[in-house]
User: What shape does this take?
Amino acid sequence: MIGGRFNCFGNSQNIFGVESTINNCNASTQIMGGKFFVGSTTSAPARYGVYASVPTTNPSDYAGYFNGNLVTTGTCSDIKVKDSINSYKNALSKIRQLIPQLFILKIIHSLLLIFHKANVME
Assistant: This one.
């Protein structure tokens, strides 16, 4: 069952499957450009509120693009891009071997001296 379908064939400058614009609206609780809900089901192997796919290797193509803050209430994971996940033994002992050091980068130190000398001469 499909609630709506968008197909485009041919060439066009801008193609939108769904577009929503909200301007000059007064709302007491929320304003949403789109809302997608997938109810409970026992027969589906997977459920998606929003699914996007761009089958390309072009680095300027995105399955999702968000301009603004993003909020999630679920979990995000990079598990799909990992293999051979193992525990790291003796991690704390490795951390204890680190020798932290504080330093000033020489170029920044020189710039600070030049700036300080210029202010003293005035």
